[in-house]
């Protein structure tokens, strides 16, 4: 499905392998549902990087899984959503802040503005 919102937040991170099951359970079952209640947040898509190969310059280039390996793509109305009181409350809700966040590392956050105007 194409991105519908004008902006996306990309949140990427690695997680300690011993806590990966908890990370996925809490991210899907608690963290995402809390953030989807924030006004201006429309969808969240989670992905995990994998190794791959692609054709380029008359050859095949092998690529390792990206680092960080986990990424979530949040469709948002505007970057100001991320400064709202509702966002601040949601990112601290549930077990995420106390039981999961301490086991994450290599965290990267970026906001992008969609350039294509087609649906």
Task: Set out the fold topology.
Blueprint: E1 7-15, H1 20-36, E2 41-48, E3 52-56, E4 59-63, E5 70-76, H2 85-90, H3 96-100, E6 104-113
Describe the structure.
The chain is built from 3 helices and 6 strands; from the N terminus they run E-H-E-E-E-E-H-H-E. By secondary structure, the protein is of the alpha+beta class. It has one domain: Alpha-Beta Plaits, CATH 3.30.70. The strands form 2 sheets. The chain has a 4-stranded antiparallel beta sheet with strand order 2-5-1-6, with helices on one face. It is flat, with a radius of gyration of 16 Å. The N and C termini lie close together (9 Å). This is EthD domain-containing protein. InterPro entries: Dimeric_a/b-barrel.
Number of strands: 6
The string of secondary-structure elements, in order, is EHEEEEHHE
**Structural class estimated from helices and strands:** alpha+beta
Strand order of the largest sheet: 2-5-1-6
State the main characteristics.
single chain; about 120 residues; alpha+beta; Alpha-Beta Plaits; four-stranded antiparallel sheet; two-stranded antiparallel ribbon; flat; EthD domain-containing protein; Dimeric_a/b-barrel
Task: Briefly characterize the structure.
The chain is α+β, with helices and mostly antiparallel strands. It has three helices and six strands; from the N terminus they run E-H-E-E-E-E-H-H-E. It comes from Bradyrhizobium zhengyangense.
